Amino acid sequence: MIELTAAQVAAATGGRLHADPDVTVTGAVIVDSRQAGPGALFVALPGERVDGHDFAATAVEAGAALVLAARALDGLPTVVVDDPQAALGDLARHVLATVRGRADGAVVPRVVAVTGSVGKTTTKDLLGQLLGPEAGGEHAIIVPKGSFNNEIGLPLTVLRVTTATRYLVLEMGADRIGNIAYLTRIAPPDVGVVLAVGVAHVGHFGSVEAIAQTKGEMVEGVVDGGTVVLNADDLRVTAMAGRAMPGTTVQTFGTIPSADVRAEDITVDPAGRASFTLRVARADGADEQRADVALQLVGPHHVSNALAAATVALRLGVTASDVARRLSGATALSPHRMAVTERPDGVTVIDDAYNANPDSMKAALRTLAVMSGRTRRSVAVLGEMLELGDGARAAHDEIGRLVVRLNIKQLIVVGDGAYHIHEGAMQEGSWGSESIFVPDLAAARSMLDESLEPGDVVLVKSSLGAGLAELGDHLSMALTPKDNNK
């Protein structure tokens, strides 16, 4: 973060100063006292299990220069605010606006923000790999690790901005109307991307229409003269073009002929990796640009994510040939997202247990079917998809039926919340032990350790809260007991 005095932090957050006004924050902004270092600013967030105020002294002892808190803390340099989480957002907004408003003629950060029901993290990671070489150094581009996409994670990412930052790539998530609007007020995007509208978090929103309304807040939050990037293959997303402000440029990506940036001649190899021809329309009516792309990411659904990232990079001045080359070399950076491990015992593990909704579940299962082909046994280990509201039972049932239609050889359903996947498979025609329900991770782990054979391809997929990421880690590192006993 740029250096700020305690007085400046108080002014930016509307706080009351209980510290020397000249105390200077020179380090990172943190919410975990274990990350405290010299010059840090510790934000004391109240939580369901722990209260950050209880750890403020520990952070100061470790070197933190200042604490942002909801109450005065005896003996600790503190800026007191009504709501530390809201103040964190206010501070991030101030820092970014300060860096963007520099009057010295230097290059200011270009903010790229991505939202959508699926694909946000992968697209964000691809953008980092496409724009990184343009930034001129690792410190000139900021791309959050994992999914720092909420009211806490996004401000923490924004607060990493310095005067050396050229690109700030952000992921914006939402579980209620107004979330995206709030995040775009903290970091108004120069380029805002909407990937897709699905049923993720529909339990919070109440309807898919409410989800579309919220994702469209990205379009309204783009800076004057900025660019909106929309998925031409999703009708709810293309309809958002009407919400763009005057002076905003709208660019589309997809597989339909009218998309500005599109993929043609898509093929998928036995390992589940897609190749395609990237075609880029020219605004001046000249011949389209073309380049071949061979993705290293597993799953044909990543074509859409790649097109979204390509559209942004092209808009920011990267050539089509460089985009294609960098996409072809891009790798998966975030854990538990279609991470493929080839075990020494011949088992292939696809760990996609970071998150799940009906759309991503279907995409992962189709990839499993492609990778196993006709000669390898396919095993789907599926857990609960959370936050689906009243439609949860039907959504899980549908996934079970799809497993049967895709001819997945073995289905293991883990946990009571996912039971209706097993029920759907049985109703669709699964018989015998083709579909098995187990109550918990321990039972699933024991079964898999005993039953997996060389040549099997196993998919682990659930929402993060269902806990199957732990099983994904185990399977990715494990050898079967039979191999260990050799």
Automatic annotation (TrEMBL):
Domain Mur ligase N-terminal catalytic: 30-73
Protein's cellular compartments: Cytoplasm
Reactions catalysed: D-alanyl-D-alanine + UDP-N-acetyl-alpha-D-muramoyl-L-alanyl-gamma-D-glutamyl-meso-2,6-diaminopimelate + ATP = UDP-N-acetyl-alpha-D-muramoyl-L-alanyl-gamma-D-glutamyl-meso-2,6-diaminopimeloyl-D-alanyl-D-alanine + ADP + phosphate + H(+)
Residues given in the record as ATP binding sites: G116, S117, V118, G119, K120, T121, T122
NCBIfam families recorded: murF
Sequence similarity: Belongs to the MurCDEF family. MurF subfamily.
Protein name stated in the entry: UDP-N-acetylmuramoyl-tripeptide--D-alanyl-D-alanine ligase
Organism: Promicromonospora umidemergens
